[in-house]
Amino acid sequence: MSTAALLPDEDVIEYLAAHEKKGLLRFITCGSVDDGKSTLIGRLLYDSKLLYDDQLATLENDTKRHGTQGEKIDFALLVDGLAAEREQGITIDVAYRFFSTEKRKFIVADTPGHEQYTRNMATGASTADLAVILIDARKGILNQTRRHSYIASLLGIRHIIVAINKMDLVDYSEQIYRDIDTDYRKFAEALGFQSIAAIPMSAFEGDNIISKSSRTPWYDGAALLPYLETISVRGDLAEKPFRMPVQWVNRPNLDFRGFSGTIASGTASPGDEVVVMPSAKRSKIERIVTQDGEFEMAGFDEAVTITLTDEIDISRGDIICAGQSPAELTDQFAAHLLWMSDEKLFPGRQYLLKTANRIVPATITELKHKININTFDHQSAKTLELNDIGYCNLNLAQSVAFDAYDDNRRTGSFILIDKRTNATVGAGMIEFSLRRAQNVHWQNLDVGKPSRAKAKHQRPCVLWFTGLSGSGKSTVANLVEKKLHDMGRHTYILDGDNVRHGLNKDLGFTDADRVENIRRIGETARLMADAGLIVLVSFISPFQSERRMARELLDEDEFIEVYISTPLEVCEKRDVKGLYAKARRGEIKNFTGIDSAYEAPVNAEIDVDTSEVSAESAAETIVEHLESKGYLEG
Question: 392-412, pLDDT tens digit by residue?
Answer without folding.
Answer: 999 998 999 999 998 998 899
